[in-house]
Amino acid sequence: MAAEPQWQLLERPITIEEFQQLPFVRSVFFHYGMKFMDSPRAVLRTNSKGGTEVKIRVPPEHIKDVVFHYQLRFADKERRQDTDYKGAKVERFVFQTMLDDHVVYSIHVPTSGEYFLEIFANKIDDSHRVGEDPNSPMMPFRLKCACKFRVICDSLQNKMHPLPCCAAGEWGPAKSIRHFDLIPVTHRVGVISPQTDRIEIKFKIPRPLHFLAKLRKNGIDDHALDRFVDTSVSGNELTVSVLFPESGQYGLDLYARPERAADSQTLAHAAKYLINMEKVSQTIELDVTKVDAATLMSKDKWGALPMFEKLGMRALSHRDAKIRTTDSNQLTIEMGISERLQISYHLIREPDEDHREHVTVARNEEGRKVKFFVNMLRPGNYLFAIYAKQDTDPSRKMVNVFNYMIKYSPDGSSHINSNETPKRDKKSGLFGKK
Q: Is residue 336 a contact partner of residue 367, using CB atoms and an 8 Å limit?
């Protein structure tokens, strides 16, 4: 800050106190003519629900080409390296969307404390768009820090839930316009509040594209929702049809690639919607048990359960249900299965943290073996529950077939007794006595 007021080159010079309260900004912010709306301060204090907001206006000549992203992380030293809170990425507590001439960041932090919110931006060119050449993939681009805030939440009255586990980044159709020239016809903003159990989202498409839509909901296996979402193309119009099996908050991801692209070219993320379904006229029973049911496991339900052998399943890599690992936070569990089985799973960290998104599954080509790649973010006790059912089972209910107790202790300070379940607080936890 200039020591002499006249060298501030402002119509109204500011004081040193006012200067210190201004948000931290970098050159890219000014390079693209950005301006803050609502005059935010460098330190944002949340309301009683953990909420605060940042709005940045972008001039018309840049609005169609500027890409934004963000990072939310804990500010205190003890948690600065933590990217998750109770199994959910901290960034899932931020809603970013583009509205006309400005970008909005709506933050609802998961717990009281201090955070850093860093906003990134940069301008893209035609190499970052899908063009006429079907085998010319979008090139990666680098984002630069535009501004930074400290977010302080002194107290939180209500429990905040993370947004559905969709692709990272902005919500809404602005990305589809910018990178694919997909023009939304029906839903032009990132939040949808349906009035009926079924909605159709329509886009005008510039050229033949292949599409994939994924419906997401916290606590529900994505595969269980696949039958409730579909895409169809008629002429130059794409229709994404969604049927909601139950009330709640959903995320909808849309992916695309040129229709004549090589099989090796992956689908790129094109758009994302947040859908708040208040009430459905008729609830449809889903294929999988919700995550909450996994927390009801008791100490006498470790290992293979009655349906494990009946469904023709075999434990190939870890026959002992109690696993201790000290040298790696990654674990691969392999099982033999029938090709006609549907498989699901839950991963819970004691006492009740949902870590399901940190597990990936792969089947071999014949479909007779399945591998679970389990990632444990922090030391502790984990329950890994596996569910299965026959494809031909008309009930569409999956049953719990095997439960692993995993102890991840990189310091080697504790152990699992082969005859005993680790103790825990009487009020909570997965592994203690009832």
A: no
Tell me how far apart the alpha carbons of residues 312 and 306 are, in angstroms, rounded to a whole number. 11
pLDDT value at residue 105: 98
What ranges in 38-196 are assigned the alpha helix state H?
Answer: 174-180
Torsion, Cα of 397, 243, 213, 65 (10° steps): -140
First to last CA, the chain: 63
Of the candidates 82, 143, 69, which has an alpha carbon nearest to the alpha carbon of residue 113?
Answer: 82
Strand 84-85 and strand 88-89: pairing? antiparallel
Which residue stretches of the chain have pLDDT < 50? 289-299, 414-434
- pTM confidence score: 0.71
d(CA 256, CA 238): 11
- Sequential DSSP letters for 196-253: SSEEEEEEE-SS-EEEEEEEE-TTS-HHHHGGGEEEEEETTEEEEEEE-SSSEEEEEE
- DSSP-assigned beta bridge partners for residue 173: none
Structure tokens belonging to residue 405: 């107790």
Q: What is the pLDDT of residue 164?
A: 93
DSSP secondary structure of 319-371:
-SSEEEESS-SEEEEEEE--TTEEEEEEEEETTTEE-GGGEEEEE-TTSSEEE
Contact criterion met (CB below 8 Å) for 302 and 321: yes
Give the pLDDT of residue 1. Answer: 72
